[in-house]
Amino acid sequence: MLRYRVQSSSNNTANTNTNTNTNTNTNTNNGNHLHNKKKNKNPAKKSLKNLHNRQLNIIDFPIEVIDNICDNISISDIISLSSTCSNLKRKVEHNIYNYIRILDIDHIIDEDEIIIQKHFGSFKDESLENESWWVYNNISNVTNTKNILMLFYNVLMNPNLGKYIKTIEINLILKPSPWNRCKSSNNSKNNLSIWNKSLSNFFTFEELNQINIDPNLTLFDCLIMLLDFTPNLENLIVSKFSLFDVSKLIVKTPNLKQLKIMIYENDTFVELPLQNLKNLKKLRLKFQENTEDLLNNLVLNFAKFNILSKLEVLQLKYDKTDFNHLSNPTWFSFFKPLLKFNVIIFKSLKRLELKDCFFGSNQQEIISNLLCLIPFNQIEWLSLQIYEYSHKNIKHSTCKNDIYNNTTLSYLSPHLSNLKSIRIKPTKNCKSCQIDSILKFFNDHKNLENIWLSTDSLNKINYMKILDTFQNYKKILRLAYFDEFINHKLINNLKNWFMFEHKIMDFDIFRCYESEILRQDIDPIFNCYRIDEFKNFNERERNLLVLFWQHFLNEFGLDSLLTKSNQHELGMKLFGYNFKVDKVRKVILLYISKEVGYIDLIYY
Question: Where is this chain compositionally biased, Low complexity type (predicted)?
Fold first, then answer.
């Protein structure tokens, strides 16, 4: 909360005039000025004392400070600040409506999920909270049907508020149990969905009569009405709805820059009205298996209105419901119909993500086709979480040398001349081929600035080769490194350190570490941790944790990795923990939690 009071504008004006008159008299009366100068040896000290003794006004703060506060405080503080005076309300109110996230109101936690959450820990994601100044997104979460209607009604009654809404997100909830996701994901077209229920199911007749709204309207109808008052909406993230519902939404959103939708296995293709989407730059598609025909028709729908050539970001993500099941290369169906045009289609593309996408053993053929459609020489950001086989059903030891390079990364590498950021996740590839491919790739691309590598180096020799490669990077800003080989050693070291050497018997390796690394390896965040148990333990045992990492960083060569970058401040996530390097103070810092922040670890 902000800790100063704001006086009325009339008082502010009076104080401004008083200060102006005082300054004028002081400047014109030279004799008194000299006399005061002799009498008060330290006028600045007296000025500070006077400032301390009187109540601060909003005008005492530089306008840049006020702007910075208003742009970075949390949603809860914005609401409090907006109630102080009309001037500040006008200044901060737009932040309340900027990003609207409507949580999955169809979701009901069942007994199986409760048991899973108790085992895995409480997944409280700080990146989605709004309690700290560093949170990169101030998001207003709408959590139930009544709040949804209050949002709609507030905008309908105050249309000027609608112009502040730039993002609307309505996603399926990410549940810990994939089988529950499978059961619930097909509800997009189901009439039992809460979005298709009328308002009379949620509100009394008196409540509906008081706000003068038709009780037969559904929540989805209200969403359509809301879009009529959002002329500046740029991001529509709606993987909750079918293509038929999406077609109704995007006809109301001509200024979209980002669109995320879901392609369901049981969905029916509907041609989307894309003729007005002249500004779309980012397309994100989630898809289930057996959606090849839908993806074929959808990409031709986008090509018809010349949208693909203007895209700068493309994300394809398979909605995996079984961890052990690999499907056909369904995702490639989005590109296949475009090959007949025999030209580069994605002329403006700079960021490409393939998540949980299956290649099988056809990497060379698929990459060859993609090269006909995508100018990889201008790709700046690439994310690959794919499944492939460099030599399916053949032992690594019996392979010929040319088979070692049969990986997606090796085929793409020569064409990525402008790459700045890379994300690589484990694959179903031969691990020996995978680590060889990774080592060669990073040795060939030493100008990378942001790296997220999740792999298994297999042995200390490969591990040291990875560290040596990263130490030669001169432009690196962020590095997230997850390594199964080192992770096993780290787990044993943590157990020995806390349980056996220091007798902390409540140390639960899963709750206090493994649950955190599982979550961070999904999407690493450098400014926070995700699991409550992990954060709480770090705070309670921070002194022992510092001693542990002082020894562990040195033992595994990580201290030299952290200090050899030429950047002023380097952020690293190593095996789930956050580190930072301050080049001015020459110190490596360890992040404990949001409440504690970073603490000094090693001076060098």
Answer: 10-33
Burial call 544-561: b when 16+ CB within 10 Å, e when fewer: ebbebbeebbeebebbeb
- 8-state DSSP, 575: T
Listed residue (87, 252, 81) closest to 165, CA to CA: 252
Cβ neighbours of residue 468 closer than 8 Å, sequence gap 6 or more? none
Ramachandran class of 530: left when φ > 0, alpha when ψ lies in -120 to 50, beta otherwise:
alpha
- Phi first, then psi: what are they for 140, rounded to 5°? -95, 110
Both structure tokens of 469: 């490669």
Which residue is it, tokens 């390594």? Answer: 483
Decide: 317 and 288 in contact? Cβ < 8 Å: no
In a domain, 187, yes or no: no
Domain around 55: 9-79
Mean pLDDT of the chain: 80
Q: Tell me the CA distances in angstroms from 173 to 10, 24, 446, one per residue in order.
A: 49, 63, 38
* Rounded distance between C-alpha atoms, residue 586 and residue 563, angstroms: 8
Residue 212 is classified by DSSP as: T
Who's near 415: CB < 8 A, 6+ residues apart? 371, 376, 377
Helix (H, G, I), strand (E, B) or coil at 603: strand
Closest C-alpha to 421, from 360, 475, 342: 475
Which tokens hold the place of 48? Answer: 């500070």
Q: How far is CA 530 from CA 160, 291, 578, 600, in A?
A: 36, 33, 12, 22
Region of 212 please: left (phi>0), alpha (psi -120 to 50) or beta. Answer: left
CA dist 260 → 181, 183, 283, 544 (Å):
18, 21, 6, 45
Measured CA to CA, the distance from residue 371 to residue 378 in angstroms comes to 12
Predicted confidence (pLDDT) per residue in 507-565, tens digit: 999 889 998 998 888 888 888 888 888 999 999 999 999 999 999 898 888 888 888 76
- Residue 79, Cβ density class (10 Å: 0-12 exposed, 13-18 middle, ≥19 buried): middle
Distance of alpha carbon 43 from alpha carbon 49, whole angstroms: 10
Residue 122 lies in a domain: no
Residue 231 — very low, low, confident or very high, per pLDDT cuts 50/70/90? very high
pLDDT in tens, 1-20: 333 333 333 334 334 343 43
d(CA 249, CA 227): 8
CA–CA separation, 471 and 463 (whole Å): 13
How far apart are alpha carbons 47 and 51 in whole angstroms? 6
The residue among 17, 49, 79 that closes a domain is 79
Q: How many domains does the chain have?
A: 2
**Would you say residue 440 lies in a domain?**
no
**Among residues 79, 104, 135, which one ends one of the domains?**
79
Least confident residue range of 35-39, 91-95, 128-132: 128-132
Model-level pTM? 0.80
Cα distance between residue 391 and residue 401, in whole Å:
11
Distance CA 483, CA 573 (A): 11
Rounded to the nearest 5°, which phi and psi values hold at 280? -65, 125
The CA-atom distances, in angstroms, between 80 and each of 5, 9, 130, 153 are 12, 18, 13, 21
Residue 224, in any domain of the structure: no
Query: Which of the residue ranges 362-371, 499-508, 560-569, 570-579 would you say has the lowest mean pLDDT?
Result: 560-569
